[in-house]
Request: fold
Amino acid sequence: MKMNDVTKQHRNLIAGEWVEGADVNENRNPANTDEIVGLYARASKDDAKRAIAAARAAFPAWSKSGPQQRHDLLKKVSDTIAARADELGELLAREEGKTFAEAKGEVMRASQVFGFFSGEALRQTGDAIDSVRPGVEVMVQREALGVIGLITPWNFPIAIPAWKIAPALAFGNCVVIKPADLTPGCAWALAEIIHEAGAPEGVFNLVMGRGSEVGAEILDSPEVDAVSFTGSVETGRMVARTCVAQMKKVQLEMGGKNPLVVLDDADLDTAVNCALNGAFFSTGQRCTASSRLIVTAGIHDRFVEALTEKLRALKVGDPMDSAVHIGPVVDEGQLEQNRRYVKIGQEEGATLVCGGEVIEGDTPGHFMTPALFTGTTNEMRINREEIFGPVATVIKVADYDEALRVANDTDFGLSAGICTTNLGHAAHFRRHAEAGMIMVNLPTAGVDYHTPFGGRKGSSYGPREQGQYAREFYTTVKTSYIQA
Ligand code: NAD
Reply:
């Protein structure tokens, strides 16, 4: 297995050159904070400006390069990621903290995303329409937008960059990406792969660093045509305000407070496994995590008992240990936030059935046991605000109608799930749950790579990501009228 060299500074990729940053970021392992995963350059505003200028300069040739060249590049990236899956999975587990199995799965997802969009590069679609004026023909085609700024979060450090970079390049755009400062390693490895696969100079640029410096430059630059952002609601709102003021196209994916409804007629094992996976795997650090478990009275006690038993059996620890189910929380700040919400839940009168304790591992890391609250109401802060950790709540309701009402009573609308054996309730929920993605007898987290991803209300803004729907954001429509 190829390991990351911890003495090497991983530099930014600007105009096809590896460039030192203004500062160096020590990327540390959240499961062992004594361990430096790697040293990563932090770009300055000027570095970001140069990256944006390089992308602008590369755009005319790249946007006219033709689909074969773009297909070949993306296919090569997809194949290389897959070939390096073990090494990249280990890097991901060590910088972000999800278990090696989850991390390798995320790496393979990135490979699949590039594979999918290598095909999309070839599947250019358009329309030929007869004009209402005799002798005139109308053609509708999609064209690249220009320079796309990508700003990504820490929790999916390779999959999210992949599902933004791949469609951007497939449709002929040039890219400047700023990954999260907490997890630059996977984005750097992806940049190396894209560079070595032969991306022409300036077509793809990586500028690692802080949001307030590098991210702000991407948002403010008049040379950036569109911004795709994934991260918190607070930052996302600011990104939207800045982009709209400059009339930049913008796409936001933000937080969630996703409900999983469990009805009396649910298969108990299915419901418990959906809750366990959806709420707690990947240390609960998923925007699609089932943080609110809305359970009808007839199954409530059996469900809580079975889920608690499974939670107590989960092993928290080093993500590289194959016996471990839940890795560390990503950093000290997130751990503090989780602890604060556990305290808030107790002060609000909820019952902490299990977990919520910070524990010591074999190495100094941010370990916390998965926490389950019962006796909660949907008005409590723990049910209204995104915690983003291994913490879930149970809200007891009388029946399906109340469950649906509570599920929809939230500022968010990313994913919503239901566990039931009643086809009528499942169909009604699919129609009436106010979320972008609906899961029936499946965890709220866990989506395909070739289907649209995104939500409603406070969770998302702008066109969907992924699958064929990604075309909507990464291209613009041109209508031509032709008289022969
Ligand atoms: P964050 O908002 O703190 O940071 C996201 C990115 O924005 C980072 O790259 C950060 O450096 C950058 N940024 C911060 N300040 C900026 C500024 N002033 N200007 C420009 N860029 C700036 O989010 P995070 O903590 O990295 O990620 C966790 C959040 O992401 C959670 O809320 C989670 O729900 C959300 N998320 C959403 C999805 C989704 O698809 N809906 C997926 C994953 C994560």
